[in-house]
DNA sequence: GAGACCATGTAATCGGTTACATGATTCA
DNA sequence: TGAATCATGTAACCGATTACATGGTCTC
């Protein structure tokens, strides 16, 4: 098998369908009206992706309102799809995880608590923090070493990278604190 | 004609070659060792892209060290390439400019002062500020309206978007101040 | 009855990535 | 002499985007 990681779009669709079974059109509207990643809301983007997921047995579509009215195909995540989603969400955090521009880690994060639980999400954030801190360190080192040789605009470009890395790291810490509170509250309730 | 905008990779290559003519291999090393955007450093990525640019007449390669030693093809930006680069750098700032995940605006920014001048770059940053502020406003509105209906992880995901938008905006202001100083200094020298 | 919206598709294109392949040179 | 680095390519694949196309339904 050696399953390839899901593409960002595939992961987003699978995650959204895991949260709530819905039609391709509803997913399009989500992409259009909410700030989830930046996916194209065009039909040529979503429907082929859904068909690929269906072909791979990760989702299954059932037609509602059949008989001429206004048929609508509602997709649900299959058990295999759920397994695959969990695997995607559980892929280890490495340097590439935090260095990617598209912020796929954020997409993954959003689906995590619902799919693999709050405790696993907290662990994920801990790993993120570690890698983000390392990445930021490297960037700072690079800046110190090369800034003087670079034109002003290069320096400023690096500053942008630094600022956004710092913002990400602050966010990871904040998110961890917030999630930990819910884990603590949940365990308190259960005792 | 109706020239399509350059792809991020094409823009990066053209900009780098405009700053300094160099070989494909040297460009690969830049991608490998510096934190410019996140482009693949693999030959299968860069060489075809260079060939496309050459095919379109935007760059021209001259072979150095020909005669068996270790030939190396050094690429230079042609006048047409320079025009195209300027056009790319000058495309108006819209909402999509600031909303794109890949931060192509940053790439453009880095090449601007060298290609279209500091004054034009300051104008660009002014436009960026405006659009970034508008984008941030929308995000905040969305957050206020929808946060209560969303699960915690969705909220936190939005927070990440907010934090990074705020960081970008702060950076744009900072960069504008820094560049303005150099413009002021330059005009002072010239008087 | 016209226009906006629901709902789904297909075809063509294209750029980027991975994997594979080659050969020369430098240095230990 | 073998490994690392310089230097350049090619072939195959694949997913995403754009543009095009269809037809029902709801509301004014």
How much of the residues of chain A is beta strand, in percent?
5-15%
Q: What proportion of the residues of chain A is helical, as a percent range?
A: 55-70%
| Sheet with the most strands, sense and barrel status of chain A | 3 strands, antiparallel
Order of helices and strands of chain A: HEHHEEHHHHH
Tell how many strands the DSSP assignment of chain A holds: 3
Shape of chain A: globular
- C-alpha Rg of chain A, in Å? 20 Å
> How far apart are the first and last residues' alpha carbons of chain A, in Å?
42 Å
Mean pLDDT of chain A: 92
Oligomer: homodimer
Strand order of the largest sheet of chain A: 1-3-2
Structural class of chain A: mainly alpha
* Contiguous runs where pLDDT drops below 50 for at least 5 residues of chain A: none
Question: In DSSP terms, counting alpha (H) and pi (I) runs of 4 or more, how many helices of chain A?
Answer: 8
Structure characteristics:
DNA-binding, mainly alpha, 3-stranded antiparallel β-sheet, 7% strand, homodimer
What does this structure look like?
Two copies of one chain form a homodimer. The N and C termini of chain A lie far apart (42 Å). Chain A is built from eight helices and three strands. A three-stranded antiparallel beta sheet of chain A has the order 1-3-2. The longest helix of chain A is centred in the last third of the chain and has 39 residues. Chain A is mainly alpha-helical. In chain A, α1 runs parallel beside α6, α6 runs antiparallel to α7 and α7 packs antiparallel against α8. In chain A, β2 and β3 form a beta hairpin. At the A-B interface, α6, α7 and α8 of A face α6, α7 and α8 of B.
């Amino acid at each position: 098998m050696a399953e390839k990681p899901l593409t960002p779009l595939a992961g987003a669709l699978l995650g959204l369908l895991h949260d709530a079974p819905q039609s391709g059109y509803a997913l399009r509207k989500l992409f259009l009206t909410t700030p989830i990643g930046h996916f194209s809301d065009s039909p040529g983007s979503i429907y082929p992706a859904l068909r690929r997921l269906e072909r791979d047995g990760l989702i299954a579509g059932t037609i509602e309102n059949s008989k001429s009215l206004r048929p609508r195909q509602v997709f649900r995540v299959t058990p295999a799809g759920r397994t695959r989603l969990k695997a995607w969400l559980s892929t280890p955090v490495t340097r590439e995880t935090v260095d990617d521009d598209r912020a796929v880690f954020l997409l993954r994060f959003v689906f995590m608590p619902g799919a693999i639980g709050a405790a696993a999400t907290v662990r994920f954030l801990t790993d993120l923090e570690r890698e983000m801190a390392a990445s930021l360190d490297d960037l700072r080192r690079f800046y110190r070493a090369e800034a003087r040789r670079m034109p002003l605009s290069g320096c400023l470009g690096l500053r942008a990278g630094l600022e956004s890395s710092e913002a990400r790291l602050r966010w990871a810490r904040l998110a961890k604190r917030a999630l930990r509170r819910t884990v603590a509250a949940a365990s308190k309730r259960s005792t």
